[in-house]
Design brief:
Blueprint (H helix, E strand, L loop, with lengths): L1 H8 L4 H8 L6 E4 L4 E4 L4 E3 L2 E3 L5 E5 L2 E2 L12 E4 L8 E4 L9 E6 L8 E2 L3 E6 L6 E2 L7 E2 L3 E11 L4 E6 L2 E2 L4 E6 L6 E10 L8 E7 L7 E6 L2 E2 L5 E4 L3 E3 L3 E11 L4 E6 L2 E3 L2 E7 L5 E10 L8 E8 L4 E8 L1 E3 L4 E5 L6 E3 L3 E9 L6 E6 L2 E2 L7 E2 L3 E9 L8 E7 L6 E6 L1 E3 L5 E5 L4 E2 L3 E11 L4 E6 L2 E3 L2 E2 L3 E2 L5 E10 L8 E8 L4 E8 L2 E7 L15 E3 L3 E4 L4 E6 L2 E2 L8 E3 L5 E3 L10 E7 L2 E6 L9 E4 L4 E4 L4 E8 L8 E5 L9 E5 L2 E6 L8 E7 L7 E15 L3 H4 E3 L8 E10 L3 E6 L2 E2 L7 E8 L2 E8 L4 H4 L2 E8 L2 E10 ...
Main location: membrane
GO cellular component, one term: cell-cell junction
Family: Belongs to the immunoglobulin superfamily.
Length: about 1150
């Protein structure tokens, strides 16, 4: 192609071509290309149309041929268009570019018939819009407000040259200067525009725009620049308190108004920069930022008075502004001390001591206060000041309480910190107290009196001495003891054998300190009681003349001084009313008027007081004190009737109102109506109750000491009343013919109560050797016990009716003899108390089924999936505390009874007792304990979980092994039981014959290791914390059975008691009541109507010998003994399989 083109364009070859091709029609241009202007990117078409084209048509671009092919290979944007049939060879240029801007020619090569032709040149003018204008300036450097800056905008590479317009915040800038430079390529021009701008703070963040426009654009192209103008804050403010206590944190704020860039705030205290700051910035005016610096600084006393500076610095404008203020720091006194006597120098009580407290340093100066043992001391002198500090003096008059007392001086100021100094004084003081006490309240002649003297605290220790009149006595000293005020207390005792001479004397106890050369003392005045004593000067003979007045002196002393004397003449008592001539003086001397010979003789004077009597023989007229006796004793009365108690006095004189009555019982009763008929005193009691029964005292007093008294016993008769609680209505025994049952009936009544028994409505025949009745009487209590030997289920399981009767009436009780069975449910289940982690419960037991019963409490709360069980310990208790509970948690409680056979329903018809525990006290709260105890706790640590898992796994393996061997052992025992049964029974018979224990004693001995009920099988033991041997169970089902072995009940020994044994009508007393040993039980209260909780069972031991018809049966000595006997029988249970109830052994009666 290049070769061909070279030939076509060369003029030298044209003649040669003409010669070769010959002569043809000449080619010509119909249309030649013309100059064309297009916008860059547009399509340009240069037109070329040839007439009679015989040569090859092609275009030349700037003298370079593009090729004859219409598609113009190698020039993808170029092509020849038009109809070649019509000679149209138009050049089409798509997406015109700057490189297309040049000269173009349409050429036709020569042919055989025509020579080649070339069109006139045509220019393609490609117009190019300017590129995006830009600012020719340092845009990274912000402007500073107030300064002038030259803004230059360039619109590059435009054709033709672009026109530039500048705007600031939408406002056209005038006065711009423009010029042009060459563009990046030939034919392109760069337009330049410059203008001078003064920066303002309000320009910050505003737009600076440059618009470029040339003919190729419909709208100008633009570029914008956001002006970044640095400007300074208008104000700087310091806020916050500049006053602080030493050690406290100072919190201040420094605020700078809007600036750009934001200012840096620095803090200075003196010459030290503070760096513990936090900065917060917010948008401010003119697009700037406000700056808030918060400074925290812990002040010290050395910083007091320093200048605190807040400096704001603008890095953009290098602007700096400060706020300065002075810091005021409060701090406590630097040193506090007390000028006082040394602690090791003793001071004497009563002396005056001056103590001064000094305090130096501190801002402001300190205020001083004195304290003694933590209490403020009043009376300190006024505080004084000096250059370095303050002082305050305290003047103390020493007492015992100052010994080793802690004196403290507190120095305080606005720093709110107390600085203290301490001192102690050693004070010597005599005993602060003295006290004598006697071991006896009443002192009597001939007795030994022990006086104890307690000397209160003293320092140093004092020595005690005793003084009685002129005598100095030595006491018995005890070991000294530490006492109050840091002193020592001493104690001494003195023993005296009292005589009447000691009366009204003072025993002095003196505690003396040799160091202080002084002491303290107290005394005890003796008031010795002694019977009358006659003076040695007492005359023994008095001579009088007939019809004269004789005074027989009586010199007697006694304590108490109230002495009564009786005068006897010829062994006859002299009475004032019998002879008006007799008169007794205040000193008990006898004055006789008109003495006659009948008055002559020896008079015996008997004197007495509360301590005794004495007598002397002199001439004396006697007046005698009353004597009294009961007209009838005892007095019997029926319940509800009227009782009359009468006493008769022998006295002179007989005076009205001389009788008084007194009830000698412990409880108060209504006494009744008191009347007097001459020498008889009458007490009438209406509507007598059993509470009136007892002794009454009749006291007669006619004014002559001593008064006389007599006792009258009132006996209230009432019909029998039987005890009828749950444990009295049933008796359980095995019915296999090998056991003995005891049916006990106890009544209270007066007069004597007799018993009769019926079985199934038929009167019992006690001639039958299988039945025997034993009656015990103790006061108003009467107990009849029927022993049924070799109990048969067919013959003896029946209702036994006990009738107790006396002359006033009768009472009846039906007692059912049944087989041993599971117990009856408890009743009256109630809450006693509740705490934050425990609940105390109480109930009334039901019938025990003939076996020892125990109780189990069942409970749960909302978070548990099963019940927890607690075995009550001791087993017979009817009050129990469940511990280990959670605070403020609602629990549901139930209780039932169990024995060797089975268990009862839950109390009160399976009722549930709902109780909510209280809140835990704050003093007991421990966060770690609460988290570990709460049901919703976070759980155990991982290592504890692993250890517990391993331990529980091992226990489970051992449990399974134990189950396996336990089942094998039970199987082996079952195989050997049949072979050993006969030998066991034979041995049992021999044992019955030679033992003092009856069949009844063995009838209730069951295996103490009973199997727990099915509901509690496979239980998880949890310590209940209530009793030492109690357990808590949480039930869950497993195939393997487990056994629970309860603890046995302790059986105390009973004391001896007489008894009587009878058959049907014969009552026999044992020959030697001391030969019977009884087992005593704990003290129990009197019989009550309400059913009492079951008491701990007591064992009953007796001997049964039918051949001798003799019964030595041991019964309790108390009225409640029968019930206690029955309960004790339930303790001993058989230890062999053959001793189990026949119901458990599967035997038939």
């Amino acid at each position: 192609m290049d070769f061909l083109s070279a030939w076509i364009v060369s003029p030298a070859v044209l003649p040669f071509l003409c010669f070769i091709l010959g002569t043809r029609a000449q080619q010509a241009f119909r249309t030649e290309p013309r100059n064309l202007t297009v916008r860059m990117g547009a399509t340009a078409v240069l037109r070329c149309e040839v007439l009679r084209a015989s040569g090859t048509v092609q275009w030349a671009k700037d003298g370079f041929l593009l090729g004859p092919e219409r598609s113009l290979p190698g020039f993808p944007r170029y092509s020849m268009i038009g109809n070649p049939e019509r000679g149209q060879y138009h050049l089409q240029i798509e997406d015109a570019q700057l490189e297309d801007d040049t000269q173009y020619e349409c050429q036709v090569t020569s042919s055989e018939s025509s020579s080649g032709i070339i069109s006139s040149p045509a220019w393609l003018n490609v117009r190019i819009p300017p590129s995006k204008p830009y600012f020719d300036m340092d845009m990274s450097t912000p402007w500073e407000a107030g300064k002038k800056y030259t803004v230059t905008c360039i619109a590059p590479d435009a054709k033709p040259l672009a026109e530039i317009t500048l705007y600031k915040d939408g406002v056209e800038l005038t006065g711009a200067e423009s010029f042009s430079t060459s563009g990046s390529k030939d034919k392109l021009l760069n337009a330049h525009a410059e203008v001078t701008v003064t920066a303002l703070s309000s320009d910050h963040g505003r737009q600076l725009a440059c618009h470029a426009m040339n003919p190729t654009l419909l709208k100008p192209v633009e570029t914008t620049m956001t002006m970044n103008v640095y400007f300074e804050p208008a104000e700087l403010t310091l806020s916050g308190s500049l006053t602080a206590i030493e050690g406290q944190e100072l919190n201040l704020s420094c605020y700078a108004t809007s600036s750009n860039p934001p200012v840096d705030i620095r803090w200075w205290l003196g010459y030290k920069e503070l760096n513990n700051t936090s900065v917060a910035m917010e948008e401010g005016d003119n697009g700037g930022m406000t700056t808030m610096s918060n400074m925290t600084h812990r002040v010290s006393r050395e910083e007091h008075g320093l200048k605190l500076t807040c400096e704001a610095f603008n890095k953009g404008t290098h602007f700096s502004k400060t706020q300065i203020d002075e810091l005021s720091v409060y701090y406590p006194p630097q040193k506090v001390w007390i000028n006082a006597p040394p602690e090791d120098v003793p001071l004497r009580s009563g002396s005056t001591v001056h103590m001064a407290c000094f305090a130096t340093g501190g801002n402001p100066k300190a205020t001083l206060a004195w304290f003694k043992d933590g209490k403020a001391v009043t009376g300190a002198l006024k505080q004084t000041s000096f250059d370095m500090g303050v002082a305050r003096e305290l003047v103390v008059v020493l007492t015992a309480s100052d010994n080793m007392a802690s004196y403290r001086c507190d120095a305080t100021n606005k720093a709110k910190k107390t600085v203290s100094a301490y001192t102690k004084l050693r004070v010597h003081f005599t005993p602060v107290s003295m006290k004598i006490t006697a071991q006896q309240e009443v002192l009597r002649q001939g007795e030994a009196l022990t006086l104890e003297c307690q000397a209160g605290s003293s320092s140093p220790m004092a020595n005690i001495s005793w003084i009685l009149g002129p005598l100095r006595l030595q006491g018995v000293e005890e070991e000294p003891r530490d006492a109050e005020f840091g002193g020592i207390s001493v104690h001494s005792s003195l023993s005296l054998n009292l005589t009447s001479q000691h009366h009204n004397q003072k025993v002095i106890c003196q505690a003396y300190s040799h160091v202080l050369a002084e002491g303290a003392n107290t005394y005890y005045k003796l008031n010795v009681l002694y019977p009358p004593e006659f003076s040695p000067d007492q005359p023994t003979e008095v001579q009088v003349l007939e019809d004269d007045m004789a005074v027989v002196p009586l010199l007697v002393s006694a304590n108490p001084e109230e002495v009564s004397c009786i005068w006897l003449h010829r062994r006859e008592k002299l009475v004032k009313e019998e002879d008006y001539r007799y008169r007794w003086l205040d000193d008990h001397s006898l004055e006789i008027r008109n003495v006659s010979r009948n008055n002559a003789g020896v008079y015996t004077v008997k004197c007495e007081n509360d301590e005794g009597a004495n007598e002397i023989s002199i001439t004396l007229d006697v007046q005698y004190a009353p004597s009294v006796k009961a007209e009838k004793e005892p007095v019997f009365v029926n319940l509800g009737e009227t009782a009359d108690l009468i006493c008769v006095a022998d006295a002179n004189p007989i005076i009205a109102g001389m009788f008084s009555w007194k009830w000698l019982g412990e409880e108060e009763v209504e006494m009744g109506e008191e009347t007097q008929e001459d020498e008889s005193g009458l007490l009438t009691i209406y509507n007598v109750t059993r509470a009136h029964a007892g002794s009454y005292e009749c006291l007669a007093n006619n004014g002559i000491e001593p008064p006389a008294s007599a006792h009258i016993r009132l006996v209230v008769q009432f019909k029998p009343e039987l005890r009828k609680g749950p444990q009295w209505r049933k008796v359980a025994s095995r019915g296999d013919g090998t056991s003995t049952a005891e049916i006990v009936c106890q009544a209270e009544g007066i007069p004597r109560v007799d018993f009769s028994w019926e079985k199934s409505g038929v009167l019992m025949d006690f001639e039958n050797p299988r039945y025997e009745e034993v009656i015990v009487r103790e006061g108003a209590f009467h107990t009849s016990t029927v022993r049924v030997v070799n109990v048969s289920a067919v013959l003896d399981y029946a209702v036994f009716s006990c009738t107790a009767r006396n002359s006033l009436g009768e009472d009846k009780l039906d007692i059912q003899l049944i087989s041993t069975n599971h117990p009856d449910p408890p009743s009256s289940f109630r809450q006693v108390s509740v705490g934050h982690d425990s609940v105390t419960l109480e109930w009334i037991p039901g019938f025990n089924g003939g076996l020892q019963q125990r109780f189990r409490i069942r409970y749960r709360w909302d978070q548990t999936v099963s019940f927890l069980y607690v075995d009550v310990f001791p087993p017979s208790e009817t009050t129990f505390t469940v511990t280990g509970l959670q605070p403020v948690t609602t629990y549901n409680f139930s209780v039932n009874a169990l024995n060797a056979i089975g268990e009862s329903d839950y109390a009160d018809n399976n009722a549930v007792l709902t109780i909510t525990t209280k809140e835990r006290p704050e003093s007991d709260e421990d966060p770690s304990d609460i988290d570990s105890a709460s049901p919703g706790g976070s759980g155990l640590p991982v290592y504890l979980t692993v250890v517990l898992t391993a331990v529980l796994g091992g226990l489970l393996v051992f449990n399974l092994i134990g189950c396996f061997f336990g089942l094998r052992w039970k199987k082996r025992q079952g195989q050997t039981a049949a072979g050993s049964k006969d030998s066991v029974l034979d041995g049992k018979k021999k044992e019955d014959e030679g033992s003092s224990q009856s069949t009844a004693g063995n009838s209730n001995k069951y295996e103490s290791r009973e199997m727990i009920n099915a509901a509690a099988q496979r239980t998880l033991l949890v310590d209940s914390g209530s009793e030492a041997d109690s357990n808590v169970y949480e039930s869950y089902a497993e195939e393997c059975s487990h056994y629970y072995y309860p603890t046995g009940v302790y059986t105390p020994h009973l004391g001896p008691h007489p008894e009587e044994t009878r058959g049907l009508d014969v009552i026999r007393r044992p020959i030697d009541s001391h030969g019977h040993l009884y087992e005593d039980v704990r003290d129990v209260g009197m019989y009550q109507d309400a059913p009492a909780p079951s008491l701990p069972p007591t064992s009953v031991v007796f001997e049964h010998k039918p051949s001798q018809q003799r019964n030595e049966w041991r019964l309790p000595t108390r009225p409640q003994g029968a019930e206690r006997t029955r309960e004790f029988m339930a303790v001993h249970q058989p230890q062999r399989d053959s001793d189990l109830p026949f119901e458990l052994r599967g035997e038939l009666v």
